[in-house]
Amino acid sequence: MKKILFSLLILVLLASVSCNKYDAKGNLIKKYDEIQKATWLLGEWEKTDSLGTLKEIWVNKNDSTFIGQSYYIQNNKDTIHNENIELVQAQEHLIYLALVKGENNNKAIPFQMTKDADSLLVFENPKHDYPKKIEYRLLKNKGLSITVFGKEKGKRNSETYLLVKKK
């Protein structure tokens, strides 16, 4: 009986070791499955209307981080909004970090992913005033819908931005 238990223990250990991947130096290669759920977000997205242009650009920094920038240029002259964004996988969580210079003592505001699907990412921070929730949705026409939810001046508010991917 002891031989059987010992053999089973060895098999379990071998199976768990064989599922891991290692680099050329023998270091364990970590899996970043959560950040992979957002790969469809990579690229340059844009919305232009008579008032100006909204752009959001996402690039892959490394295996656990995507870096983004969102900005709005009014009438090709003045930058009205400029936000630096990071999507970071921290252990098993995907965190959306939003930094607007001059706000929040120049510290990024974290939003944790609370829902994901093939074409949906939802990030929330219930302690933040506005927004409390940010939703990214890939549309069937390959457009991008970004909706922010929260309270402004005590009233529930949401704003939706529809962008198209630049080639």
The class by helix and strand makeup works out as mainly beta
Secondary structure tally, helices: 2
Q: What summary fits the major beta sheet?
A: 10 strands, antiparallel, barrel
Shape: globular
Physical arrangement of strands within the biggest beta sheet? 3-4-5-6-7-8-9-10-11-12
Secondary structure topology:
Elements: H1 2-19, E1 21-22, E2 28-29, H2 33-36, E3 43-49, E4 52-62, E5 65-74, E6 78-90, E7 93-99, E8 109-117, E9 120-124, E10 133-138, E11 144-152, E12 155-165
Antiparallel strand pairs: 1-2, 3-4, 3-12, 4-5, 5-6, 6-7, 7-8, 8-9, 9-10, 10-11, 11-12
How would you describe the overall organization of this protein?
By secondary structure, this protein is mainly beta. Helices cover 13% and strands 55% of the residues. The chain has helices at residues 2-19, 33-36; strands at residues 21-22, 28-29, 43-49, 52-62, 65-74, 78-90, 93-99, 109-117, 120-124, 133-138, 144-152, 155-165. A hairpin with a 3-residue loop joins strand 5 (65-74) and strand 6. The chain is globular, with a radius of gyration of 21 Å.
Main attributes of the structure:
167 residues, mainly beta, 10-stranded antiparallel β-barrel, 2 helices
Q: What's a quick, concise take on this entry?
A:
The protein is mainly beta.
